[in-house]
């Protein structure tokens, strides 16, 4: 297995490893959008395999566009989850020549902005592509959880997934890079077909709730909600009708922000 990233290079394996048969993530997004009166035009940043974008497009009746940097993920999305418009673009510098009523960023994609400059650049791109009053909805790891909590750092976590008759096993370790304020991940994959093992490295920015509020306010957004649970990746997971808990101590963080009138810069083409 000679892969830059085994899961993003093999989207079918990704969906086996992280199943969402009830479409919890997409349903949670739709609940947020309806609750806050968002219009139909939606941009999914880091759309991955396209399963959330397609559900929102077909089942919720939204006009969905998805962007991602993985060619394999985009090819899978176009063939297996058609309907939305899919484009290869980087979250820090995309220009789509269109505006949206809401932008969604799930599964910690927000945290691939590792530096302050990258985060400011992403929020500027969101501002350029949102209508005045448009929503930014994100679901991510919670940096505040790691203040005193070590349960995710105590040792390797093992998981398996089967794909095309082969069982893949991953051993994942996490550690906090305090100077860079990153949660770094080392993942080793093995397979029962005798393939060589693959070692992969990635990282997420660790953002604290007040820090996140500052970045958003500076970028022209009003934070409507910022809370830890319930959500599509929490335990127990979100279900229809559940109200947000006003706390931020768990390992997930959910953000709903509105672009304040007068802050859209109107530059969605560069």
- Kindly report the average pLDDT value: 94
- Low-confidence runs of at least 5 consecutive residues: none
Q: Into which percentage range does the β-strand content fall?
A: 25-35%
Q: Report helical residue fraction.
A: 10-25%
Helix-strand pattern? HHHEHEHEEHEEEEEHEE
Tell me the strand order in the biggest sheet: 3-2-1-4-5-11-10
User: What best-fitting shape do the alpha-carbon axes yield?
Assistant: globular
| Biggest sheet record | 7 strands, mixed
Radius of gyration from the alpha-carbon trace, in angstroms: 18 Å
Number of extended strands: 11
Q: What class would the helix/strand composition place it in?
A: alpha/beta
End-to-end separation? 37 Å
Quaternary status of these chains?
Answer: single chain
Secondary structure layout plus pairing:
Elements: H1 6-9, H2 11-17, H3 24-35, E1 41-45, H4 51-58, E2 63-68, H5 71-80, E3 85-88, E4 100-105, H6 116-129, E5 130-141, E6 157-163, E7 166-177, E8 182-191, E9 198-205, H7 209-218, E10 221-227, E11 252-259
Parallel strand pairs: 1-2, 1-4, 2-3, 4-5
Antiparallel strand pairs: 5-11, 6-7, 7-8, 8-9, 10-11
Helix pairs in contact: 3-4
């Amino acid at each position: 297995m000679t892969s830059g990233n085994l899961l993003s290079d093999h989207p079918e394996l990704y969906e086996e490893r992280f199943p969402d048969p009830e479409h919890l993530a997409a349903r949670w997004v739709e609940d947020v959008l309806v609750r806050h009166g968002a219009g139909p035009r939606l941009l999914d940043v880091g759309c991955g395999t396209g399963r959330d974008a397609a559900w929102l497009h077909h089942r919720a009746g939204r006009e969905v566009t998805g962007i991602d940097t993985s060619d394999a993920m985009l090819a899978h999305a176009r063939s297996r989850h058609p309907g939305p418009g899919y484009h290869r673009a980087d979250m820090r510098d995309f220009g789509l020549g269109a505006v949206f009523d809401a932008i969604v960023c799930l599964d910690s994609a927000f945290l691939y902005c590792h530096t302050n400059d990258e985060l400011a650049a992403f929020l500027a791109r969101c501002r350029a592509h949102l209508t005045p009053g448009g929503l930014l909805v994100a679901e991510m790891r919670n940096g505040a959880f790691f203040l005193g909590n070590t349960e995710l750092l105590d040792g390797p976590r093992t998981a398996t997934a089967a794909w095309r008759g082969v069982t893949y096993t991953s051993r994942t370790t996490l550690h906090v890079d305090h100077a860079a304020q990153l949660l770094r991940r080392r993942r080793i994959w093995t397979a029962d077909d005798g393939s060589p093992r693959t070692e992969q490295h990635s990282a997420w920015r660790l953002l604290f709730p007040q820090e996140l509020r500052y970045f958003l306010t500076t970028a022209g957004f009003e934070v409507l909600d910022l809370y830890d649970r319930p959500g599509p990746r929490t335990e127990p997971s979100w279900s229809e009708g559940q109200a947000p808990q006003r706390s931020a101590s768990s390992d997930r963080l959910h953000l709903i922000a509105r672009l304040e009138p007068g802050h859209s810069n109107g530059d969605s083409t560069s």
